[in-house]
Amino acid sequence: MAEHLLEVRNLSVEFHTAAGVVHAVKSISYHLDKGETLAILGESGSGKSVSSSAIMNLIDMPPGRISGGEILLDGRDLLTMPAEERREVNGRRVAMIFQDPLSHLNPVYSVGWQIAEAMTTHGLAGSKAREEGLRLLRRVGIPEPERAMRKYPHEFSGGQRQRVMIAMALALRPDLLIADEPTTALDVTVQAEVLKLLKELQRETGMAVLIITHDLGVVAEIADRVVVMEKGTLVEAGTVREIYKNPQHPYTRKLIAAAPGKGVMHEPGARAEPLLSVRDVRKTYGSFEALKGISFDLMPGETMAVVGESGSGKSTLARALLRLDEPDSGTALWKGRDLFALSPSELYKLRRDLQMVFQDPTQSLNPRMTVFQLISEAWVIHPDILPKARWRERVAELLAQVGLSAEHMSRYPHQFSGGQRQRIAIARALALEPQLIICDEAVSALDVSVQAQVIELLDKLRREMGIAFIFIAHDLPVVRDFADHVMVMQQGEIVELGTIREVFETPRQAYTRALLAASLSPDPDAKAGCPEPPAADAEILIPKRSH
Amino acid sequence: MTLATTDNVIAAEPSLLVRMMRMLLADKFALSAAIFLLVILAIAIIGPSWLGDLATKQNLRGRNLPPFDWTRTWVWWMGADALGRPLFARIIVAAQNTLMVAAGAVILSSVIGTVLGLIAGFSSPRTGQIIMRLADVIMSFPSLLIAVIVLYVLGSSILNLMLVLAITRIPVYLRTTRAEVLEIRERMFVQAARVMGASSKRILFRHILPVVLPTLTTLATLDFAYVMLAESALSFLGIGIQPPEITWGLMISQGRQYLTNAWWLSFWPGLAIILTTMSLNLLSNWMRIALDPVQRWRLEMKGGKNG
Amino acid sequence: MLRFIRQRALASLISLIGLIVMVFFLSRMTGDPAALFLPVEASAEMKDQFRELHGLNDPILVQFARYVGDVATGDLGQSLRKARPALDVVLEAFTWTLWLAIITMTLVTGAAIVVGSLGAFRSGGFFDRFSSMISLVGASVPDFWLAIVAIVIFSINFAILPTSGTGSVLHWILPIAVLFVRPFGIIVQVVRGAMVGALSSAYVKTARAKGVKSGPIIFIHALRNAMLPVITVVGDQAASLLNGAVVVETIFGFPGVGKLMIDSILQRDFNVVLAAILVTAIAIFLMNVLIDLAYALLDPRIRH
Amino acid sequence: ESGPIKIVLPEEADLLEPCMATRSNIGRIIMQNVSETLTELDVRGGKGLMPRLAESWEQKEDGSWRFNLRKGVKFSDGTDFNAKDVKYSFDRVMSDKNACESRRYFGGMNIKIDVVDDATIDFTVDPVQPILPLLLSLLTIVPEETPMEFVREPVGTGPYELTDWTPGQQIVLTARDDYWGEKPEVTEATYLFRSDPAVRAAMVQTGEADLSPSISQTEATNPATDFSYLDSETVYLRIDHNIEPLNDVRVRRALNLAIDREAFLGTLVPDSAVLATAIVPPPTLGWNPDVKVFPYDPDQAKKLIEEAKADGVKVDTPITIIARTANFPNVTEIMEAIQAQLQEVGLQVELKFVEVAEHEVYYSKPFKDGRGPQLVAAMHDNSKGDPSFSMFFKYDSEGTQSGFADPKVDDLIARANAAVGDERAKLWSELIAYVHDEVVADVLLFHMVGFSRVSERLDFKPTMATNSMLQLSEIKIK
Ligand SMILES: Nc1ncnc2c1ncn2[C@@H]1O[C@H](COP(=O)(O)OP(=O)(O)OP(=O)(O)O)[C@@H](O)[C@H]1O
Ligand SMILES: Nc1ncnc2c1ncn2[C@@H]1O[C@H](COP(=O)(O)OP(=O)(O)OP(=O)(O)O)[C@@H](O)[C@H]1O
Ligand SMILES: [Mg+2]
Ligand SMILES: [Mg+2]
């Protein structure tokens, strides 16, 4: 039997928690050969990240425990390998891109140093490593890479951090790359770049890629084979085409059916008194202009999608609107009152009406609070919303609405998967029953089935309660399904603003067209004929819904 | 805090108290420490009324009696001091004053220091600057001078002594807290709390303080030892607690001159201080783990095995 | 940066002045230097004359104005006891103290970081328990006790080190060793605590994924994140050393500022007390500036 | 043999000012080593007052004194010593440009000085001062050129001169070649300063020093090197007679009877200490051997207190003992024991320890108004051979530390001060007995002993004066 590069056999992982043992991964097996790309698809919380962490030897043991199985790299079991040898494997032979780039980058070292370290650790000279780091940063499309080398993680946008992680992982040209949701925070153009880079490297070095993603488009674009996970077990495996065209397992079918971009486009109603009216917002970081005069209106019950290049200032705008970062100038009239001119105490009263779901869910959850505490904090702060007696019930309800269960209530954030944390953050924002929610990549870490469920929930809230949304996303099909208006941003400016139909069907700007063109289709056969006219393309990438 | 009530633990889980007890049982060191501290506390409460007379009964002819004379009653097992008083009894009686001064000073300074530190780190730069420079002033004011001034102006008493020691220890807590707040307030979960409309008070005490608390607890437990010893130094200079009041610190400073020929005079009170500090520290290390959800498994796993 | 320093210097100057004013008036509430300078049998006239000679008979505000005037011209006055400029007396002593503090704190910080970090790395392990115990005993043992025991062992029994005094490098060993113990105990615990948290962070996982060795993971990745409380406490300990290590100075006959300060306070030699506080305060203020700069240096998120 | 030695002292001199040499930490270094006096009290033998810079002296008819000075004496700065220097030295002590401590010995008298010639000088004192030559053993002679203000580098006629002073570290005295007298064996003395008695003892043991004039009793365990000596310090409790119940002599007597002085000897107080019957130690003029130490008689004490109580004296008022921390060895324990013993006989006694500055407030007049009954524990030093240095301050109605006013005592002091010879001794004896037995002025406790450790290299025996004066020329090297 020809030896596989990586072979996972009957791997089982469990976690000890106060409430009992959680079986995160239950006896899964798969293999991967040189130069091959295997995608792991699956529900959020199904054990994708845990199983790949096991390969990297990164599970905290205890409380975690690999209760069975073996992980063979070139036939040698990584689980029984001596520590020193094991360490050499990491980085050099196997590298990993983490799902959650902000917490996985060391906050006190410059990005350049961290990338170079990956190489110096394995014996490369310092100057060479920096040079290589610079080259990699350029390859992943970070603007001004020279300066970026000296910047610290918190000075980057979400997508930029993710690209830094990618650069770091690719630094040593590993034999095996484990990429955990490497493109969740990337806009489609950058995503295309990154995927191209991966493919190039694969061609050059024969690197094998284990990619974890929920984006069927990405799967179609890059993967050779797919395995599908659900609730810790492996439910289906096959080539991309097999799985897409002929899914066997019900879960897989559900997953594929749930792919977004198939709904009816919203037609916004007549413009009335705007809920929020933003004029000429500017923000600079040092000499860098992150926002160069943003203006738009938002009606009650409307959704404004914000799409655009990674690093174009989407999160900055969101933060400015909420006064988390003070904007340099501009006004934001909320029901006629300027948010930027409010005193702290006035602002405090308005807080409950404006909520935000942050781009980095892990960091936005207090690690010392249980899910119950996190969500019910809203009511502690604003006691008039809900009487205390009903808190538990309501928390359970909210959790169910975002696809979690009541028994998660007493768990702490670190005990969840990335997508689960994102849903906790959404539930928390909903708990306050606000009038506007700013969602910064709020559904990007969710698998399509859960994503559909959450989007549906949000849509329902909008319809029934008139909640308005500012919806920052890079996933155009989702945007298409959910938003009324789209705002396309590039380098701190709005390059295009219009209704969903206007922008998707008759994009005026070249950048918007490029964006739409770069959007990936989940159909593996669709990619051949990709660079068609954008407007038509948007139609093509929508498979028929199987009702 | 309102959130820490029992109803946030779902039915399947044991109550908070039971969980803490289990975690305590899981750590043998912390358990012994807790028991030791309880004993000391009990002693501090009943000591003076129980052995007060015995501890002050002098016998010049039996001075500096060596320890380990098992033929006598237990109060003599640690030997006798320079006036022939049983050391064991004196240590027990001294526990009250000692703990009062130490706990008082540590609690006072840590609470004041922490609150000021939180304010300095979180409020406007101007307020922060004022508080910090105030800390500089206290820090560079020699504690001895504060002691002389306070005790000279207000007179020497346990309360004043506590006050003096408390004042001098404020800056550590203040500076430590502020430094951490500067970093923590930039974290995303703090911003998330702001978005929810949490007041500064809530953010400081509910979100930021728990992160700083372990460090502060470590400092506070170590300060316990510091305060007990500083109090001994002050006594020696004539501006601290003076006989006939007794504290461990005073006993140490009285035993100082007999160090080379009657070591037990300062050894036992010294040991009492060391053991108390050590117990407090073991307990605070345990608490650090028990209160940190990310670390808690260390105790729960063990508890599981034992149970 | 320049603005920061200018602002800081101004604020520090104000607090320095406040400090001096406070000490000036408060210390004068603590009794009459004449009674202490002159023998108990001295007559009232003699005492009066002594006060006259040193300007202590003037109203306190006049005394204060005179003092301020003198300080403005760089004159911190004469020591009552020593009949020489107070500043000279203090600077002489302070030089010793400064060296003692610098050497001790350097050694302490280095050692405590290594021991505390290693303890945290294998927290609960044998080394952790052992080093914790040693450091806790160190933090709570009376220092005079250590000093005397050290002299008995190293000077009398083994006769390898001088008992006390100054003169050679050997004379520094025991004082430093004794001063080392308590800050070491405290800082080990603080390092250990902070490192336990830092080592369980996600970025440590990243480092492990990169294949970084344990050494750099502990001392490069985690340590810098854990340094904030550590340098604060180091600063606190250094400040107490700068204020003088009284016991060690007393026992080892080390001519530092601590004993000078105590003696001057007990003798009510106000000019020396004021000068000593001024000098140590400046040192401590400077140190705090360095520490604040170090915060910013260590953690880019604090830089503003 | 000759050579250098090292001496370790408990505290550093802050000044080496000759006119402050009566302060022990200064005098121990420069008195008679650097700065000499006209006369000198023999503390070793019974020779009494001996000539030093004065070769002889006499009292003239009118009560004034004439001193004939030694010739050919040079100061260490090379200038000659003559009568003008003596006058200048005296004027300097009395000047208001400095705070010379020795001025206090010449208080209450009017002194006129006439320089007769270079080698003769007359002192006319009003009122007549019979012990002027003794007082002059406290006047250090400086050259005329010395400024009025305090100096830090003393110039004197003594056998040594100051050659190095590194503050905080050491003081070095080196023998002079042109000293007028016999050349001492010690060629150079280095003074070191350590406050801890255990360290001082250890330094002699390890050879880092040759002589430590004061070590603690607990360290003095080696008979070959450790000596004890009566050190002229007297410990007592000063009674404040002005406040009830201490204004009643029965209560004061009861205080004395309640204390078991013997029990302290060999325990908290060295064995060789002497129970005190006077504020001055035995070798002092007029010390009265007939005065007996109060016996330990608690029953009698209780009886006296009962009697006083029956007469309406408020014996239940709490009495405060005020003591100074670190005043003398074991002070806390001794005071605690005394407190316990006084309580034993039914008195209410509190104990209060204060630091030196505060102690002074309680000890010396003016006393605070509204104070309660107080016993101030204090230690008094008189090594000068005459009670006049003590009696006025401690017992005269005008005395700064006196706790009572008794016309008879005032009269006795005045007469004794004016008397000479046997008459003087008799009057002092009478005073001592009266104060002790009739007035029961205070609770006298012990004449203390000191311990010193002397390297076996040296041949030296400390004396009563060692506390305030340590003549290097008396030290011989084996
Ligand atoms: N430390 C832990 N303690 C308890 N449970 C844990 C812990 N870490 C992970 N889990 C659980 O393990 C399961 C698998 O998590 P994993 O992170 O692998 O999910 P995932 O498939 O990567 O999901 P996503 O797509 O949302 O990232 C989740 O249900 C999670 O709750
Ligand atoms: N604290 C900071 N200091 C300096 N530059 C910053 C800082 N925060 C953000 N930036 C820069 O501002 C730009 C906009 O960042 P922002 O987070 O708004 O991007 P974004 O549009 O949300 O991108 P993404 O889709 O990648 O999250 C980026 O180029 C980023 O490098
Ligand atoms: Mg995951
Ligand atoms: Mg963003």
TrEMBL record, chain A:
Family matches, as Pfam families? ABC_tran (PF00005), oligo_HPY (PF08352)
Q: GO CC annotations?
A: plasma membrane
Q: Which domain of life is it from?
A: Bacteria
What residues does the ABC transporter domain cover?
8-256, 276-516
Question: Where would you find this protein in the cell?
Answer: Cell inner membrane
Cited SUPFAM superfamilies: P-loop containing nucleoside triphosphate hydrolases
Which molecular function GO terms apply here? ATP binding; ATP hydrolysis activity
Q: Which PROSITE patterns match?
A: ABC_TRANSPORTER_1 (PS00211), ABC_TRANSPORTER_2 (PS50893)
A biological process from GO: transmembrane transport
Q: Which InterPro entries match?
A: AAA+_ATPase, ABC_transp_ATP-bind, ABC_transporter-like_ATP-bd, ABC_transporter-like_CS, Oligopep_ABC_C, P-loop_NTPase
Describe its membrane topology. Peripheral membrane protein
Enumerate the UniProt keywords alphabetically. Amino-acid transport, ATP-binding, Nucleotide-binding, Transport
Q: State what this protein does.
A: Probably part of a binding-protein-dependent transport system y4tOPQRS for a peptide. Probably responsible for energy coupling to the transport system.
Q: Which family does it belong to?
A: Belongs to the ABC transporter superfamily.
Protein's UniProt name: Dipeptide ABC transporter ATP-binding protein
Q: Which organism is it from?
A: Sinorhizobium medicae
Automatic annotation (TrEMBL), chain B:
Gene Ontology biological process terms from the UniProt entry: peptide transport; protein transport; transmembrane transport
CDD domains linked to this entry:
TM_PBP2
Give the ABC transmembrane type-1 domain ranges: 95-284
The UniProt entry's GO CC annotations, sorted and at most eight, read: plasma membrane
Keyword vocabulary terms for this entry: Cell membrane, Membrane, Peptide transport, Protein transport, Transmembrane, Transmembrane helix, Transport
The membrane spanning regions, by residue number, are 29-51, 74-93, 100-124, 144-168, 208-229, 262-283
In terms of InterPro entries, this protein maps to:
BP-dependent_transpt_permease, MetI-like, MetI-like_sf
SUPFAM superfamilies, per database record = MetI-like
Q: What is its main location?
A: membrane
Q: Which Pfam families match?
A: BPD_transp_1 (PF00528)
Q: How does it sit in the membrane?
A: Multi-pass membrane protein
> What does the UniProt entry say about where the protein is found?
Cell membrane
Give the family this protein belongs to, as stated in its UniProt record. Answer: Belongs to the binding-protein-dependent transport system permease family.
Name under which the protein is recorded: ABC transporter permease subunit
UniProtKB/TrEMBL annotation, chain C:
Where exactly are the transmembrane stretches of this chain? 9-27, 96-121, 133-160, 172-195, 272-298
Membrane topology label: Multi-pass membrane protein
Q: Which InterPro entries match?
A: BPD_transp_1_N (IPR045621), MetI-like (IPR000515), MetI-like_sf (IPR035906)
Q: Which SUPFAM superfamilies match?
A: MetI-like
Any one cellular-component term (Gene Ontology): plasma membrane
A molecular function (GO) term: dipeptide transmembrane transporter activity
As for subcellular location, the record says: Cell membrane
Which residues does the UniProt record annotate as the domain ABC transmembrane type-1? Answer: 94-291
**Keyword set, alphabetical order:** Cell membrane, Membrane, Transmembrane, Transmembrane helix, Transport
Q: Which family does it belong to?
A: Belongs to the binding-protein-dependent transport system permease family.
From the Swiss-Prot or TrEMBL record, give the protein name: ABC transporter permease
What organism is recorded for this protein?
Answer: Sinorhizobium medicae
